[in-house]
Amino acid sequence: MQRPSRLIHASPSRNVIVEIKNALKIGEPVAGEKLRHSGKIFDVFSPISSPHVAVEPQI
């Protein structure tokens, strides 16, 4: 489970764009501040040196 480095943007479609330290695969879980499962990755973009992912939050 990956913990995001920094929140970049919350989209109108209720998805969250975050910067991460390591590139991950689509469908992998993402943890929030208290290391609880917060959502799953559904898109990876930006350069490998500074990857960003779109996370579909689990409510």
Describe the model.
The protein has 59 residues and is mostly beta strands. The protein has one domain (6-57): Probable tRNA pseudouridine synthase domain (Thrombin, subunit H). It is 0% helix and 46% strand. It has no helices and 5 strands. It has strands spanning 6-10, 16-19, 29-31, 37-45, 52-57. The protein has a 5-stranded antiparallel beta sheet with strand order 1-2-5-4-3, with no helix packed on it. The chain is globular. The two termini are 17 Å apart. The model has no long low-confidence stretch (mean pLDDT 79).
Strand content: over 45%
- Name the CATH superfamily assignment: Probable tRNA pseudouridine synthase domain
CATH architectural name: Beta Barrel
Overall shape: it is globular
Pick out the low-confidence regions.
none
CATH hierarchy, class: Mainly Beta
User: What structural category arises from helix and sheet content?
Assistant: mainly beta
In helices, the fraction of residues equals under 10%
**Sequence of strands across the biggest β-sheet:** 1-2-5-4-3
Tally of domains: 1
Indicate the CATH topology: Thrombin, subunit H
Spell out the helices and strands N to C.
EEEEE
Q: What is the average of the pLDDT values?
A: 79
How would a crystallographer describe the biggest sheet? 5 strands, antiparallel
List the total number of helices. Answer: 0
For the secondary structure, the number of strands is: 5
What's the gist of this structure?
With 59 residues, the chain is an all-beta fold. It has strands at residues 6-10, 16-19, 29-31, 37-45, 52-57. It is globular and about 30 Å long.
